[in-house]
Amino acid sequence: MTVITNTLFKDHKNGNEIMSSVSDVQLGANTIARRVSAMSANVTEQLEKDLGSCKWFSIQCDESVDSSSTAQLMVFIRMVFSDLSVKEEFLTLLPLKTTTRGVDIYNAVKKYFTEKNVPFEKLVSVTTDGAPAMTGQHAGFVALCRGDPDFPKFLHYHCIIHQQALCAKVMGFDHVMSPVVKIINSIRSKAKQHRSFKVLLEELSAEYGDLLLHTEIRWLSRGRILQRFLSLLSEIKVFMESRGEDTAMLQDTEWLLDLAFLTDITVKQNNLNCELQGKNKTISEMISAVNAFKAKISLFSTYLQRNKLHHFPSMQSMLSNNDSASEVFDRAKHNYFELLKRLEQEFEDRFNDFDSLEPCVSFIANPFMQVDILHISEKLSDAFNLVSSEVEMEILTLQSDINLKAHQGATEFWKLVDPEKYVNISTAAMKVACLFGSTYLCESAFSDMNFIKNKHRTRLTDGHLEDSIRVTVSGYTPDYRALVDVMQCQASH
What we know:
Blueprint: H1 2-9, H2 15-23, H3 29-53, E1 56-65, E2 71-80, E3 86-96, H4 102-115, E4 123-128, H5 132-135, H6 141-146, E5 155-158, H7 160-168, H8 174-188, H9 191-203, H10 221-231, H11 233-242, H12 253-276, H13 283-305, H14 313-321, H15 325-349, H16 352-355, H17 358-365, H18 373-384, H19 388-399, H20 402-405, H21 423-433, H22 440-452, H23 462-473, H24 480-485
Parallel strand pairs: 1-4, 4-5
Antiparallel strand pairs: 1-2, 2-3
Helix pairs in contact: 1-2, 3-23, 7-12, 10-12, 12-13, 12-14, 12-15, 13-15, 18-19, 22-23
């Protein structure tokens, strides 16, 4: 620190004063730990205040193992307030010291809610992955919460991103993926061989400087490694031939077409995955993205039947650069079409929990749409514990309100709706606003957790780990002035 300040401020007119002040800053390990804990406590106070004032909230939960083999349950919260504003926040990190069964997760969450006075009655939904410990019919976390009278009736969703990733597995194509992964691993497994390959790519002015490794746990891994592999196909072939390896498969037109088809489809699924990721994603945006992809699959099938490959650039390039590929494509086209149909059906079969919610989300997004009043009122009442007969009357009154019709389509329409006059549908709008569609925030925070508690910091306590993660990912800004006012600086001497 002294060297840095001397370098930065030695020519500054107040350099000596600045360096003197900086030298008084305490940077001991225990001091830093106390500072992080103090900031975390301050942020927690802000969160608890918002929890008390919010109207409704939802949570998302996921579990992962840290570098010291401790299972950690990550919990995020999404709160909606009376003015329809929304906040997504890190709620807590709960260590599971022994087993990670549904009852262990349930006990940890229930204990935290009770100790921290989290208002159970404001809970609207819980979003988890599809693990049996979370979704088991009898002993899963969600089932145990629903059987607890302290918990209200709430919605439960299997993370939409996880479901999309599971849909992608229906593609199969192991006869393509296995050789690709094997070739990549063989090139990158030995340091000398890997260096030689990178030198070759540089000499040939290749589009990319290296191949990517494949990992099943990374959502976007498959599409990216296929795209990179296909782009470097000629260079890979040259490298393998220089080592006397068999490249017959890389010259097999049928296999190359399968590779191109799989690359095009996985790239499209990657694009959908990226659309679903991110903070502050609303449930309507995520449902819309999935519905759009379903429609696109149908369109891709139609174009494929008509031999129009506008949406399959890799296959189109393969056909234009290989004279014998057209004949092979005609034979393989039916298989590709069947595979797209299977993928489309997989998307239809999944997301059932969101299908039942879609009419409610559509109505909240456009309350003046032509709807079956009885049907939509039943849907809203079932989903959000409302009185069906009252919802019917409020919808009819709202759709006849001339003043509100003048603001139809306004981005903040529900802020203009009188919550006392339209109690039920205003409540439905707030509950829709606070729904999580995925466990993206948990997955993202696990990356931060693995960076904070890495192999060099395995002795980090659970309390300090939670404090560090809270300071890292929280949207709140610590009240530094208040923190400074209650601290006494004791400079070393």
